[in-house]
Amino acid sequence: MDEKIDLPDFSDLHILIIGDVMIDRYISGDVKRISPEAPVPVVDQKSFENRAGGAANVALNVLSLGAKATLLSITGEDEAQNILKSVLNINDRLQLEFITCKNRKTTVKTRVMAGYQHLLRVDNEDKHDIHTDEEQKVITRFESLLNNIKIDGVILQDYNKGLLTKKIIEKIIDKCVAQNIPTFVDPKENNFFSYKRCTVFKPNKKEVFQSLGVNSDMNAIDKILRARLDHVISLITLGKDGLYINDGVTDGVYPTSPRVISDVCGAGDSVISVVCVCYLKNMKIASIAKVANIAGGQVCEYPGVVPINYQNLKAELAKTQ
Around Cβ 48, how many Cβ atoms within 10 Å? Predict the structure, then answer.
């Protein structure tokens, strides 16, 4: 029988999330005919919904786990910024630190759905790196937060939308290392090797293979990553095969449980959130991996981007032991 895992109380933790925010928009309806204008389905719209995506979804995951969250990001000077703020339902446990960038769009990803069938996605966004003056605003705001709030951990959630430039990444991690604040990284291909000296490095298998140019076993990949990044823990998500984790002493692949998968969007957001708070509570590496697997799997059972349900997470942990 597996060792019993009791989730600790995370309410005393304050997590700073820095990364690309976006709106995940869903237009849902029924398809009963093909358009006479072109060979495409006609969707009779039944519902329209905006959800918080990207680093904003990470913040919601952190809140769902019971911790406090501060979200530092950039947005455009547009209506989408206001919509995102309203969707986040700001309260005393969530602090928003949005820096408005003129002549830039707030990312909106619109998905057209027929039932659970994903028909089309339309992205409205800017992906170029933010300008030098905007970089400095982000760094200044970050340093101010560290000076005025007790931050227990920092999550860097990169979607390659232009916020996490090489300069910002290096400044943040250098400052966190100097103040002994653990950093948790969910990278993308751009600036993949800029996260030197982070605490936990959590790419997925595809990102690792693309960035390294190799398709090797996980332990060999871990050695390459450590030589380049000098980090503490490698955590590589493997999709349906679970995840690989290595802290430099112990390593292993932890499989997922069988599930009916509806949508994989947001699974990585849930995993990095769980790993962050569990690590900060000094949980064992095997326990962190098992909790992260369950959390990532649970959100995949729901259509669209959703945060962790803490009670469901606890319930499934109890059943698996």
Answer: 11
